[in-house]
């Protein structure tokens, strides 16, 4: 999993300068423990929303992926945004950066319902649902201080996380939800539109405030009882595990952070803990209870918010287990408050992952459906061509009838003549009503029709084959990016979608889709015009569609990521002195080994580039792959060919070994 390192740009004791008002720096590294949005984090987020984002007027509710929604709002001093996520892994509720504008038709159903009901309403406040349970309520009304009309409730419960829009004036009737749970899916509670909302069953364990009523001795006794019940004896039971089992609202990460903050050794066992260890952990536990209690000083606890990076845990009291979060940025629309910025950084890619998977699936499905349709058309065209291929024999038969018509006896259905090829005597069939001349004329007419069919179908077969080859290359490009690793992967998929829309293989979606469809139709008739772009912008766009590797000699090797990148590699970047590569007879990337004029490519560099071309191809599992290579000056694009389609006038062949560059190319 990704590890997120959070560091302050200024000392916690000193206010940061305006230049460094950006409160957090987020750096990715390796991490074993995912960040935890537990009860403590929920309380922190609710307090931050109340402190910085209420009251605000809702401008839009946008659901851009299957598991999250952003509420964009405006306050007297600027813009605000709140993100509600019910993702199975990264569910949370927090302030956030302003959400991207969702085009018409792209807002998902829950977002559409929320937008219809909440747009123009005022976010009155945020509340924790039930004490020690991970559920938050955002309340909405007509005016600040007024009565709540609707509530947006989010349950943060791992894979059971969900979000609901409730009618506050009608017994919390469910008006919309992230996903519905019917009677057949659960025996605990039904969560569906039109039914009253029911809270989830209480989590196991006791109320933490109940556990400390007997002081440190009573609290210790609770944990010792849990330790005995778990293993029969206290020999192997750890303090952190027993805290999680004993008390509601205590997550594994929180228990470890509290023990670390108390100065007790990680993994300390119940049996071996000293009296001073018990007192230290108890005191830290009490500080935690005080920080999340409803009567705590919200401003003070937010100022003390501490991030324990190793455990992925947020605390609301000072602790040596982590670092204090910096104060809020001047512009809250950039990333929200410190709590929102923290979880926006930690969970930021989850939404993009959902968008990537949805778009990739949609585009891949469209490509495969089109390929299936083209394959069916190819079969039909070839049947027509096969039927038309007999026109020469029919022509000969008509010629024979005309040549031997003098032998015809009126009323006869046959005509004696000789085969033009062998000279043997044969009998030709004649229509008695038309005679040999009339029959021949009918055959000539049929010949002309079949010839016209053949002339019309052959180019269609070529065009169809060209489109199949193009889409197979696109399909391969999509399959190469099988999972989301960075925002570049999402941009890559979006570029392929735009390319397919431009090529007429995919219908435009979102705002302006109808206008774009009309523009594409006009362009096909010659009425369209290509948008003008700057040279640098065009070059940067092409570079985004190219992978760059380094050959053994240090020379650059350019490899196309998609059709746009392939065309850029072959026709824009490729120069006469470079070497161009592509696998033979299969879809794959276009590759060039870049050189300065006068340079000669070494055998090692040629082999490396061939290996790269074989790796980024549909036949890379073969171990050894034939790869064509030539100078880019012999690479041409046929007139009217699709994006990335080229021909070569001459070639040499080398055996590429994809396994030799797997470590270099995998994941690129």
Enumerate the strands of the largest sheet in spatial order, edge to edge or round the barrel: 6-5-4-3-7-8-9-10-11
Gyration radius from CA atoms, angstroms: 36 Å
Structural class determined from secondary elements: alpha+beta
| Residue windows where pLDDT falls under 50 for at least 5 positions | 1-33, 527-533
Q: Mean pLDDT score, rounded?
A: 84
State the end-to-end CA separation.
Answer: 18 Å
Q: Number of DSSP strands?
A: 24
What is the 3D shape? elongated
Strand content: 15-25%
What share of residues is helical?
25-40%
- Counting DSSP H or I runs of 4 or more residues, the number of helices is 18
Sheet of most strands: 9 strands, antiparallel
Task: Name the features.
elongated; 19% strand; 24 strands; alpha+beta
Question: Topology of this protein?
Answer:
Layout: E1 2-7, E2 25-30, H1 39-52, E3 56-65, E4 68-75, E5 78-85, E6 92-95, H2 109-118, E7 122-128, E8 135-141, E9 150-155, E10 162-167, E11 173-177, H3 208-211, H4 215-231, H5 239-246, H6 252-261, H7 275-292, H8 298-303, E12 306-308, E13 313-315, E14 323-324, H9 332-335, H10 338-388, H11 391-403, E15 414-418, E16 425-429, H12 435-480, H13 487-502, H14 513-524, H15 535-543, E17 546-550, E18 556-560, H16 563-573, E19 579-583, E20 591-593, H17 603-615, E21 625-630, E22 635-636, E23 647-648, E24 652-656, H18 662-665
Antiparallel strand pairs: 1-2, 3-4, 3-7, 4-5, 5-6, 7-8, 8-9, 9-10, 10-11, 12-13, 12-14, 15-16, 17-18, 18-20, 19-20, 19-21, 21-24, 22-23
Helix pairs in contact: 4-5, 5-6, 10-12, 10-13, 11-12
């Amino acid at each position: 999993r990704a590890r997120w390192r959070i560091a302050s740009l200024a000392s916690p004791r000193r206010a940061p300068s305006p230049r460094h008002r950006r409160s957090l720096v987020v750096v990715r590294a390796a991490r074993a423990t995912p960040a935890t949005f537990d009860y403590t984090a929920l309380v922190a987020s609710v307090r931050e929303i109340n402190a910085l984002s209420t009251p605000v007027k809702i401008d839009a509710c946008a659901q851009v992926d299957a598991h999250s929604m952003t509420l964009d709002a405006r306050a007297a001093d600027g813009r605000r945004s709140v993100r509600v996520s019910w993702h199975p892994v990264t569910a949370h509720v927090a302030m956030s950066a302003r959400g991207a504008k969702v085009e018409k038709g792209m807002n998902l159903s829950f977002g559409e319902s929320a937008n219809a009901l909440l747009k123009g309403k005022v976010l009155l406040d945020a509340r924790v649902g039930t004490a020690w349970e991970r559920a938050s309520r955002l309340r909405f009304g007509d005016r600040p201080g007024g009565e709540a009309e609707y509530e947006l409730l989010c349950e943060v419960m791992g894979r059971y996380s969900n979000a609901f829009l409730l009618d506050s004036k009608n017994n919390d009737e469910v008006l919309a939800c992230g996903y519905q749970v019917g009677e057949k899916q659960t025996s605990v509670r039904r969560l569906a539109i039109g039914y009253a909302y029911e809270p989830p069953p209480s989590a196991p364990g006791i109320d933490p405030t109940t556990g400390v009523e007997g002081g440190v001795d009573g609290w210790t006794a609770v944990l010792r009882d849990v330790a005995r019940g778990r293993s029969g004896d206290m020999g192997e039971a750890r303090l952190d595990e027993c805290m999680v089992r004993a008390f509601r609202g205590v997550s594994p990460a929180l228990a470890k952070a509290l023990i670390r903050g108390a100065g007790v050794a990680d993994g300390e066992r119940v049996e071996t803990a000293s009296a001073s260890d018990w007192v230290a952990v108890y005191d830290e536990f009490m500080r935690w209870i005080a920080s999340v209690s409803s009567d705590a000083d919200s401003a003070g606890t937010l100022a003390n918010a501490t991030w324990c990076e190793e455990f992925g845990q947020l605390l609301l009291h000072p602790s040596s287990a982590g670092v204090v979060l910096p104060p809020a940025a001047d512009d809250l629309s950039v990333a929200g408050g410190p709590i929102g910025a923290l979880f926006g950084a930690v969970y930021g890619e989850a939404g993009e992952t959902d968008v990537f998977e949805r778009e990739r699936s949609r585009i891949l499905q469209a490509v495969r459906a089109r390929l299936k349709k083209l394959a069916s058309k190819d079969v039909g065209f070839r049947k027509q061509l096969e039927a038309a291929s007999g026109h020469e024999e029919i022509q000969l038969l008509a010629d024979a009838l005309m040549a031997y018509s003098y032998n015809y006896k009126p009323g006869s259905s046959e005509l004696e003549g000789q085969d033009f090829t062998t000279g043997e005597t044969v009998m030709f069939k004649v229509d008695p009503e038309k005679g040999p001349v009339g029959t021949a004329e009918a055959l000539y007419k049929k010949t002309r029709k079949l010839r016209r069919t053949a002339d019309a179908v052959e180019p269609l077969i070529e065009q169809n084959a060209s489109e199949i080859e193009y889409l197979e290359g696109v399909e391969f490009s999509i399959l190469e990016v099988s999972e989301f690793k960075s925002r570049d992967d999402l941009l890559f998929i979006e570029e392929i979608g735009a390319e397919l829309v431009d090529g007429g293989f995919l219908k435009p979606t979102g705002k302006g889709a109808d206008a774009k469809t009309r523009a594409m139709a006009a362009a096909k008739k010659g009425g369209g015009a290509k948008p003008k772009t700057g040279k640098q912008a065009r070059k940067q766009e092409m570079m985004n569609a190219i992978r760059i590797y380094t050959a053994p000699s240090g020379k650059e090797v350019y490899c196309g990521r998609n059709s746009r990148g392939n065309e850029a590699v072959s026709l824009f970047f490729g120069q006469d002195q470079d070497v161009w590569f592509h696998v033979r007879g299969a879809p794959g990337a276009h590759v060039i080994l870049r050189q300065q004029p006068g340079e000669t490519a070494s055998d090692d560099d040629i082999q490396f580039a061939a290996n790269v071309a074989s790796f980024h191809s549909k036949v890379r599992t073969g171990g050894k792959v034939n790869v064509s290579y030539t100078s880019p000056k012999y690479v041409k694009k046929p007139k009217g060919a699709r994006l990335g389609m080229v021909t070569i006038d001459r070639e040499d062949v080398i055996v590429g070994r994809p396994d030799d560059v797997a470590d270099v190319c995998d994941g690129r």
